[in-house]
Here is the input.
Amino acid sequence: MSKILIIEDDPILLESLADFLQEEGMHALMAENGRKGVELAVKELPDLILCDILMPKMNGYNVFEKLKSNVTTSLIPFIFLTAKAEREDILYGMTMGADDYITKPIDFDELLARITRRMEKTRETIRRSEIKYHAVFETAHDAILLIRLADLYIIDVNQAACTMLGYSREEMLELPGRRFIQNVDFREVIENQDAGNRDIQEFHNIETTWKRKDGKQIQVLVSGKMVTIFAENFLFMMAQDITERKNNEQQLILAKVKAEESDRLKSSILSNISHELRTPLNGILGFSELLQDDLRETEYLPMIENIHLSGRRLMSTLNSIINLSQLQAGKVTMVFKDIDLVAAMKSACKSFEELLNEKKLYLKTELPGEIIVNTDQQLFKQLFRQIFDNAVKFTQKGGITIRAKIVTQDNIQYQTIKIEDTGIGIDEKFYEMIFHEFRQVSEGYNRTFQGSGLGLTISRKICELMKGKITVESTPGKGTTITIWLPATRTEQPGAIEPEEPERSLQPPPVIRTREVPLVLLVEDNAVNKNLVELFLKPTYRMDHAFDGKTAIKMATETKYDAVLMDINLGLGMDGIEATKRIKSIPGYENTSIIAVTGYTMIGDRERLIAEGCTHYIAKPFEKSAFLAIVKEAVFGRESMD
Here is the structure.
């Protein structure tokens, strides 16, 4: 017997329609308003619905939308009842997706014909839908289950679910879902849905543990939705076996942890190597520098100069190896901001003035007043120094010219910097080789030039980090041009250009001291470095010394120092960073300059130490002039450097 739901607020018409349908052998369900009609439709799942359009509170359109949004009632044929004059209402209802309409006053014979025709059509549609559903259901790659929520028994299941859990279909249909669902009560999941989503009552991508027939536990990703069929609640479930994926993820996590640990170990080793080599080099270079002055008029001067030169060469090689290792390990933090490349290049060139004069080489610049590019200032200066150093190294006569130009290539605008030398030049076949680690055109026992062969390798790595590139043009015997290509970008913020950063400190200058002979405290656990600093400071400064942080804090409490020279690695016990923080907390030391004098010189170490409280930074090994310049600034203020 077909069930027909009639939703009509006119009680006489409602009774008449019900009587007629009953006489025709159908079971009539009656609802005098839209709300009751929706409740009956969900509960009884009628074969067809007749619904008036114009009803108070919930009209026929509202009823239609409500039922079509519910998966269990969405396929029920829906016929609107409307007056003949309501043509616009009829058109609107049909555009919403209604199956048909009957105009009032109702022709009962026509009504019967339309109901019969519509139900036959719907049965055929449902039959075809069932065929498609079963085809999809059975061939789906994911496991699909239909579970009765009252007792969690399985009502239907596809082959993928049987395969995943190791049961036959017959065995699955006799099982409660709780047999293999280990750690999730889906009834609780449904009940805990947000109140605003109670009509939806679904969940997505819950990770659960299921138990197979053979006892093996598998990881499963589940999504589900509650459906109501004949007043019973069911859970329609889709599940994926993600055990292999989770195992792979775990392996990736372990690999990542190992890689990170390896990186930390590598960084620690590099940092320790750098510190342990720089500390003795500080003594070698420092004392050899002092001896050059004392033995200038003796036969020993060439020996001392060779010692100093050898130490500087070793220092240069160490710097290159450490820098390359950091770049390759991705341990460089980029700080992009608008900088003036002209100012940065002029600053870098100053350190080469003595060598240029010694080799009688000219330096020409064809640059505008400023070149503003959004890039990393410190890395650009390091990049420029590496290339400029190569140009000076391989040029014996003539000189170096620096040019700048905007170039568009592949629809990208680049700011190019050309460093042209009149040196030995290289053959085109060696262009790529010179960018490889430890490679030079002249190699082996008879190589012409000294050096690690890392300068251009480091330059290319830095340029890639800055989203740029390096190109080479050269003619043997006439010279080489290295071109730096950087994206010609800048932020559109007037006045945002960063000034050239000073090499010494990041802090405002301290208050000028009034003591006639400044008193400084050196915190250093290495006796060689202690003796060297003491000689460097004489006779301009008086110096007290502490071998460890604890002693330094006690001395600072008892005596007011004009500045503190702080080694960072102080051996056992408190390190220099902790000692710095504690001294800064002593009343009267809030604005006292604390200079980090350290062998920790890897990329980022300077910024880290400044951030921890040091006001100035100098790397070991250091030259006397550079060291005294920083001490002077720390004691007397920035204006003392002018």
Summary: The domain at 140-241 is CATH 3.30.450.20 (Beta-Lactamase). The chain has four domains: 3-136, 140-241, 246-303+502-642, 336-487. The longest helix spans residues 243-294.
